[in-house]
Write a structure and sequence with these properties.
301 residues; binds prephenic acid; 5-stranded mixed sheet; D-Maltodextrin-Binding Protein, domain 2; elongated; Alpha-Beta Plaits; alpha/beta; 30% helix; 3 domains; ACT-like_dom_sf
């Protein structure tokens, strides 16, 4: 059976996403996001499931940095999970002095903690489930976890449905080594990382290549190129599939301008169909290509 590495341990939100994206496969928990990616790069797992962005806290930087460096991986599927938390403690604890969780989770319950556990010190853990393990081990008094962790660990539920922002969501990717792309569906997302020269207008030029081909951007993040202060990589997600003419044409234009790493084209979890700019459909591109060929052949009408 194929192995899917996921950002664990058992009981993370990522485990739930992996169950949805890779049902029936063997799920292997990894302590960190880089470890999950490395398992795929070393051939120890076929694919990896990791979080990529949260609607409150934004990008999961370990995932972005891990995708920009080392051998390429591509996203073949995504899942979008609603995020509300359960606060767990040991049955023997009566005063909560420390509360641990993943930094993304702590940021999403900051107001709740101020109101309900004002005396408690928040401590960063490697994941929500790692915080639950640390509470079991007596390291901390409480953990902010995924609801499923209440079934995974022998802890007492202090609060449920905790979220400062209602309707918060996290998006997760299923990543594999480069290979055949999932078929286009009309509701796809393409992701790239682009490293431009540091000069006036370089980013604007990249964005114009997309805009002028009628491509709608869905995310733009910048991450520093480590060891080179002031230099950045840009992570771009946009609507459409590499198999579509406007996307292929835009990627070729970007490649001429800068260093581009393709991070995959896959169906969107929310099923939102791509808005295709006027004159940017596949048949518009095919007509234009035929016309150029006719000109070259001296056949222009
Ligand atoms: O720690 C977990 O449970 C995770 O799956 C990670 C993660 C994240 O990186 O954003 C996933 C969803 C929540 O937003 C909080 C934490």
């Amino acid at each position: 059976m194929s192995r899917i590495a996921y950002f664990g341990p058992a009981g993370t939100f990522t485990e739930q996403a992996a169950r949805r994206l890779a049902a029936g496969r063997e799920l292997v928990p990894m302590e960190t996001i880089p470890a999950a990616l490395t398992a795929v790069r070393k051939g120890e797992a076929e694919m990896a499931c990791v979080p990529v962005e949260n609607s409150v806290e934004g990008p999961v930087t370990a995932t972005l940095d891990g995708l920009a460096e080392d051998s390429p991986l591509v996203a073949v599927a995504e899942a979008l999970l609603p995020v509300h938390f359960t606060v767990l403690t040991r049955p023997d604890v009566d005063t909560i002095r420390t509360v641990a969780s993943h930094p993304h989770a702590l940021a999403q319950v900051r107001n709740w903690l101020e109101r309900n556990l004002p005396e408690a010190t928040a401590v960063a853990a490697s994941s929500t489930a790692a915080a639950a393990v640390a509470v079991c081990d007596g390291e901390y008094d409480a953990a902010v976890t995924a609801p499923v962790a209440a079934q995974t660990y022998p802890l007492r539920v202090l609060a449920e449905g905790v979220a400062d922002v209602p309707d918060a969501r996290t998006r997760f990717l299923l990543l594999s080594p480069p290979g055949p792309q999932p078929e286009p569906t009309g509701a796809d997302r393409t992701s790239i990382v682009a490293s431009t020269a540091n000069r006036t207008g370089a980013l604007a030029e990249l964005l114009t290549e997309l805009a002028s081909r009628g491509i709608n951007l869905t995310r733009l993040d910048a991450r520093p190129i480590k060891g080179n202060f002031g230099f950045y990589r840009f992570f771009l997600d946009f609507e459409g599939h590499v198999a579509e003419a406007r996307v292929g044409d835009a990627l070729a234009a970007l490649k001429r301008r800068c260093d581009v790493r393709f991070l995959g084209s896959h169906p969107r979890a929310d099923g939102v169909r791509a808005t295709v700019g006027a004159t940017a459909t596949d048949s518009d591109f095919a007509d234009a290509t035929r016309w150029v060929q006719a000109v070259r052949n001296g056949e222009q009408a």
